[in-house]
User: Fold this.
Amino acid sequence: MSVGTGSATGADDASRPPELRRDAPTGLGIDPDDLPEGLVVADEHGRVICFNAAAERITAVSAADALGRRLDKALPLEDLEGRRWWQLTDPYGGLAIRTRQPERNLLLPGAREVLVSARYVRDEPTGPVRRVVVCLRDTEARRRTERSHAELIATVAHELRSPLTSVKGFTATLLAKWERFTDDQKRLMLETVDADADRVTRLIAELLDISRIDSGRLEVRRQPVDIGAAVGRHIQAYVAAGQPADRFLLRVEQPLPDLWADPDKIDQVLGNLLENAVRHGEGTVTIEVRPAPSPREGEGHENAATSVTVSDEGPGIPEESMNRVFTRFWRGSKRGGTGLGLYIVKGIVEAHGGTITVGRAPAGGAEFRFTLPVAAPAYLAQ
Assistant:
């Protein structure tokens, strides 16, 4: 079995044995340099016969320097306690029943961290090792994930601390000095506690949604949804809470296709977009509901989807921020919020097979448009 090598020069290749040349076949018709992860292969003598381009990038070692060298010299790995990895694992002289090393964090010289896994190739189950195949992965992607989790934890801790401090303070005061307060004072403090409890509940719900979106477990329970009526209910709630009725303009283009979606999650999407328009925008908030082509490729029917556009007349979103609107922790202003709402909105819309975009409204404010495919159950389409 011959394997391809990493980025050696043509002149170097010409002087190498066939098994170490750049154009040596993989046996699978795959050039090792096309692999997205680092690949290092050592022969039965422990000498490197393959060192692909990704391995060069991850280790900062050139293929020309690695090829033909002993594996422990080409990859002088140490574990996090400073022990030499190849002496510790002894792939050629260790237990004959071993077939692999699971992935783990190891260090190259200069404290360069890499993720390493290995496979021991034998001609027979307990025979001598014929090849050691090493896979290398950069740790940067994992670091980004860890940073994102750390930011999420920090944000959650901050957002929880404020309402819980308020709840604790008011309840402790009421319990200690109940008789000293008037009924109006008690009512005010209890209303504050109630509002802060709602805030904690919303934050926990957001965290659960993020967990489900990130793991692909967000469930969509489809039912018939009257999207125009759903928007109308949200507008009525804002008017009842004190917003002027003439601040909202609802346009519904009939006839709309029958929409099958999760009504609770669509309410969540509408509530978030309208809250953003009311809180961060100015002037009239316009909501347009109309039939639209399906967002799915290959479904070109003219009325295969429903589109909802929410726009305002405020300052809008700066062009340089447009590509970050649907990421975690993005905040359009300093007017509160966790910065998680639009990330969740995008996850819900995409779980329905839809799309969502952001742009500038004709009046200059922000404009959000989401499109949901009709998605009628299969038994209704028959």
Notes: The two ends are 54 Å apart (CA to CA).
